[in-house]
Structure formats: structure tokens, C-alpha cells
Amino acid sequence: MTWISLGSLTAWAWLLLGQGLFWRTDVRLPPRSAPPPGDWPPVAVVVPARDEAAVLPRSLPSLLAQDYPGRAEVFLVDDGSTDGTGELARSLAERHGGLPLTVDTPGEPGPGWTGKLWAVRHGMALARARTDAEYLLLTDADIAHRPDSLRELVAAARSGGLDLVSQMARLRVATRWERLIVPAFVYFFAQLYPFRRVSRPGARTAAAAGGCVLLRRDAAERAGVPESIRQAVIDDVSLARAVKRSGGRIWLGLAERVDSVRPYPGLGELWRMISRSAYAQLRHNPLLLAGTVAGLAVVYLAPPAAVLAGALGGDRVALAAGAAAWAVMAGTYAPMLRYYRQPLWTAPLLPFTALLYLLMTVDSAVQHYRGRGAAWKGRTYARPEAAP
């Protein structure tokens, strides 16, 4: 246990200083200035939606009410919904007014396509056919935008010469399980894809947050998206990689004007949300799974175990190293808790949350090998990498 605790402390020292300062939460929209009056580029907003009637009344009116100085139009793609999503969207547009809304359906996904990307493809095709949009805002049906969200996104893209600007929407944290799991979800994502590295032109790291992606249309065409990533289950990261590989400049940060309104009231809903794509993140590789489980155990579970073992067994080195690693862990988690307006005293609970994520990842692999991997809203993508 002494050596394990020392290894964990070493890992946390490196994460603190060498992983792109992932734990900082000050990466917000970069400095920007508004284009001159009359020079605001046209934008097409593409919203893929499948069985989203429960959240549309809170999200769609916020898009229709965007205070954007240029021309903008919303395209909602009703992806085979059975709950009246399309009809509800039309009635909301009639009731609230605002930006023009087009509702259309793409039919069943073609061979080798995931459902969401098939819907995005259809929405992008509609935008090309009906508008001269310079930018596409790809946003999920459960995302609510402040009135100035689109204006600030476009200003940031124009000012910085960015081809892709993405914001990690602030997720809902209302229930006990949401408070325990949701901030950690964003914390772990930032640890895997440090925002500062994502936004650095020469860095290989690339990622986006699929709930809010402003994409320059010619950059999408240059990267061949969405066709080039049609099999991707984790479509936002794949999109960012395709744009960056093709020479595009990308930016990712935390949101101030973009919020998710989807509730995850219980552990079961959160478990399914995370486990559906966890094994896909590991490329369905058993060796990567084993390494991830071992890494989570050493980095997150070993510190409290070392503190307990050191206290009971009188091993002062294990006790001190475990306590120091645990303190660094909690300290790096505190900024994310502050961003989510959660009490800082919950930071030491991160090892328990990490244990849940470890179990979710293992469950994701189990479901994959049972043929139920990446199941979402009635569709299953057990082995998307094998699609033609």
C-alpha cells in the first residue's frame, strides 16, 4: 500500500501541473468584438430531435428568441419521434414566434450511420438548400440558450478566426444524484480533453461538446462532416478531430449562456447516460478497459484506502502520501463544484463518485458484448466500427 499511495501521489502531482491545467474553470468564450452593423453572417441552427417533447417547451423557445443582428433560421429534424415532437415544435413556433422554423424528418438512418448524425446530415442539407448560412449552430434539443448566446458565439468565431466554437453546456444539478455525478462528469471530460490544449492550434488534442457547436460551413465541407464521422457514437469529439485534422481552428470551453434542461433525477438515468458510450470512448478495446479500471483504482480509490490502511496499520508513509493525494484530488475538484454552485465540502467524496464511474464503464463493456452497447432511445449501436 505504501508504494501504491506514493504512485497515486505522483500521478496527482502530474495531473495538477502537467495535464493542461484541466481543473481550472476559467476557460470561457475568448475575447471578442462584434462585427460591424450589417456584417453579421447568416446562421442556420440545426436541432436533431428524437422523442424530445418533454424538454422542447423549455429549449426551443430560447432558440426562436435569439437576439441575433443577422439572418438566422432554425431547422429541427424530427428523427422518427413517437411522442409528437414535430407537431409540438410547430405549435411552439406559432405560439412564440421569433426566428423562422422548419421541421422535417430524415427517415430511417442509412447503412453505417448513427441516428443523431443522420439527422444532423439532413439538417445540414436543408440549410445548404434553403440558406446561404456561413455558420451552422449544431445544438441538442435539450439545450436552452440565453437570448445573446448565438450573437456571442458568432462574435467569438469571427474575432478569433475560429472554425469551430463549442461550449460545454451547464448541466442540471437539482437532485442528490445529479449533484454527486454531474460536476464529476464535466471534470473527468476536462481531464481527458484539457480545454486549453483543445484550443491550442498545434496540439493534437481535439474535442467538442455536442450540445452547442458553432461550425463554419466551409470548414465542415473541408472536413467532410458529417459523412466522414457517420459511424461515430461519440460524435462531438469525432467532429472536432475531423475539423482540426483538416486544418481548422477549434475552441472549447465552459458555458455561461447555455444550459441543459434534461433531468436525470435518479441514479438509473445517469448510469444509462454515461454507460451508453463509455466503452466506445475506449474504442471497444479490452486492454484499454483494463488499463482504465486500473488507472481509476490507483488514482482515485487508492488515496482513501491508503489513509485507512495507514491509520489502522501504523504505516505513516502510506497515511501521509494517501492524505496528500486525496487533498490534491479534492483541491482540483473544488473549482468545478464552485462552477456548479455546489458546497465545497463535497469535494472529498470524489473517490466514491469515481468508483461509480468505474462500475459504469465496466457495465458499458458488458452491455456491448451482450449486443446492447450504446443503446439510446430505441436504437442500439453494438459495434458501430464494423459498419460499412
Descriptive account of the structure:
The chain is an alpha/beta fold. 49% of the residues lie in helices and 13% in strands. It has 13 helices and 8 strands. The chain has an 8-stranded mixed β-sheet, with helices on both faces. Helix 3 (85-96) links the parallel strand 2 and strand 3 (101-104). Helix 1 crosses helix 11 and helix 10 (267-281) crosses helix 13 (350-369).
N/C terminus separation = 48 Å
Question: Class by helix and strand content?
Answer: alpha/beta
What's the SSE pattern? Answer: HEHEHEHEEHEHHEHHEHHHH
Summarize the amount of helix as a percent range.
40-55%
Keywords:
globular, disordered C terminus, eight-stranded mixed β-sheet, alpha/beta, 8 strands, 388 residues, single chain, 13 helices
Compose a concise summary of this entry:
This protein is of the alpha/beta class and 388 residues long. It has helices spanning 2-18, 56-64, 85-96, 115-130, 149-160, 176-192, 195-198, 217-223, 235-245, 267-281, 286-313, 316-339, 350-369, and strands at residues 43-49, 72-78, 101-104, 135-139, 143-145, 164-170, 212-216, 250-260.
Give the SSE map:
Elements: H1 2-18, E1 43-49, H2 56-64, E2 72-78, H3 85-96, E3 101-104, H4 115-130, E4 135-139, E5 143-145, H5 149-160, E6 164-170, H6 176-192, H7 195-198, E7 212-216, H8 217-223, H9 235-245, E8 250-260, H10 267-281, H11 286-313, H12 316-339, H13 350-369
Parallel strand pairs: 1-2, 1-4, 2-3, 6-8
Antiparallel strand pairs: 4-7, 5-8, 6-7
Helix pairs in contact: 1-11, 1-12, 2-3, 8-9, 10-13, 11-12, 11-13
